[in-house]
Each structure stands twice: as structure tokens, then as C-alpha cells.
Specification:
Layout lengths: L3 E5 L3 H13 L3 E5 L2 H10 L4 E5 L7 H9 L9 E5 L4 H9 L4 E4 L4 H12 L16 H27 L1
Parallel strand pairs: 1-2, 1-3, 3-4, 4-5
Helix pairs in contact: 2-3
Length: 164
């Protein structure tokens, strides 16, 4: 039976990328667009693993991680935090709160899949399709788009804000 992964991110592009990667590998995918929604979903269904963005409105990834790890009913679920924050302090904070790992954006499809399989003890999990990808173009486009979203959009937003 396929294992379920809960993807928690406020960015729809990131959700689409992560969902596509996981579904192609044969996993079931649940989605929450913010921390509060994630905690509500965890009341009714328990995934095998959580991919958790750090920077979200309402409740950031650190708060969600802390809430999960202090709840004995769900504290055993591995959490892989994903963030554009590359500083050591952010990574250290996530790991201290109980995250199993801290991955950097832009999303690298092979790295995400390798980590998911590692934490689920699932290195032999069969992919949903036996056809290998035809070219590296799709992962490259996802990576390029993620880089644009997480590096250039905030840069231009600051420039326009300061120009006003």
C-alpha cells in the first residue's frame, strides 16, 4: 500500500512540484496551504511523512513542527523542513525543534525523493510508472521556476516597495 506524504506550503508552485515528484514515485499526497490547515488535517489522517515549508503566513513551519513534536499522538511522524532560508541558524532551529532534516530551496527533485525514501525506509519503493523520464528538462524547469520564485520575486518586490 502506498505511503502518504503531507506537503505543507503556501506556494502553489512548490505544492505542484512536490506533488508531481511524489506521485510519480508512487506516494499518496495530501496538501495543506498553511500551518493551521496542516494541524487540522493531522487530526483526521496521519501521514507517513511531512514536507513542511518554513516561511508561511498565520503559522510558520517552526511553530507547526513544535506543535507536532509536542503532541504524543503524532510526534513520531518524520518532518522534512524545506526553506529558502539558507543560514545555519534557521537550519539549526528546525532540527532543534524536532525536524528530521532541513532541505534548501530551490527544490531538487532527486534530493527530495532520496530524502523521502531515506526517512520512510523505502529505498526499494516502486515508482508508479516503469518508464524513466525522457529528459532532464522538466526537473530543470521546476528548479528554474523555484529559483525565480524564491530569489527574484522577493528582490523585485523590495525594489518596487522602496521606489514608492
Amino acid at each position: 500500500m502506498p505511503k502518504k506524504v503531507l506537503v505543507v506550503d503556501d506556494n502553489q508552485d512548490a505544492i505542484n512540484i512536490l506533488s508531481a515528484i511524489l506521485k510519480k514515485a508512487g506516494y499518496l499526497v495530501g496538501v495543506a496551504k498553511d500551518g493551521q490547515e496542516a494541524l487540522q488535517k493531522l487530526d483526521s489522517e496521519i501521514p507517513a511523512l511531512i514536507l513542511l515549508d518554513v516561511m508561511m503566513p498565520k503559522m510558520d513551519g517552526y511553530e507547526v513542527c513544535k506543535a507536532i513534536k509536542t503532541n504524543p499522538a503524532i510526534s513520531q511522524i518524520p518532518i522534512l523542513m524545506i526553506s529558502a532560508k539558507t543560514d545555519g541558524t534557521s537550519q539549526k532551529r528546525g532540527l532543534e525543534l524536532g525536524a528530521a532534516d532541513y532541505l534548501m530551496k530551490p527544490i531538487q527533485p532527486n534530493e527530495i525523493l532520496r530524502k523521502v525514501k531515506q526517512y520512510l525506509g523505502d529505498d526499494t519503493h516502486p515508482p508508479s510508472s516503469s518508464n524513466p523520464p525522457k529528459s532532464p528538462t522538466v526537473p530543470f524547469i521546476f528548479t528554474l521556476r523555484a529559483w525565480f520564485d524564491f530569489r527574484l520575486v522577493p528582490f523585485f518586490a523590495r525594489r518596487f516597495r522602496n521606489a514608492s
